[in-house]
Prior knowledge:
Blueprint: H1 9-17, H2 26-35, H3 39-51, H4 58-89, H5 97-129
Helix pairs in contact: 2-3, 2-4, 3-4, 4-5
Family: Belongs to the 14-3-3 family.
Keywords: Monooxygenase, Oxidoreductase
Organism: Fusarium oxysporum NRRL 32931
Amino acid sequence: MQGKKFVSPLDRSLQAHNTDVYGCSQVFLARLCGQAQRYDDMVPLLKQVVKRGGELSVDERNLLTTAFNNVFNTRRASWRTIFSIEKNEYKGSEKHLATIRGYRIKIENEIEEICRDVLDLLDQSLIPNASTGE
């Protein structure tokens, strides 16, 4: 199942409409997702905001930072847990080691994808559209 990415209903709706969902702005929905701690849903909304061009407002930058920090930190915590299990709990036991390693690699791939997303947004949109050093 490696390479298969979960697509939330909100993501599917965004892809289908390619516009504001439920008649609301992406920023409003991103804020709503943040309040519900649905950071994986915040990211595609804010990526759309970034890709529309122009400089982000302070609020939009804060939402973008919050979304990416939380999706990254969640996976980093998961990686640490799985890494600890791999190193400590299964010493000498090969029975489940391949499964544990496979899951750790899946999490590593998700972390790499998040980092690539951030770098792509910076390189392609955020830095070129920035008028100040902030």
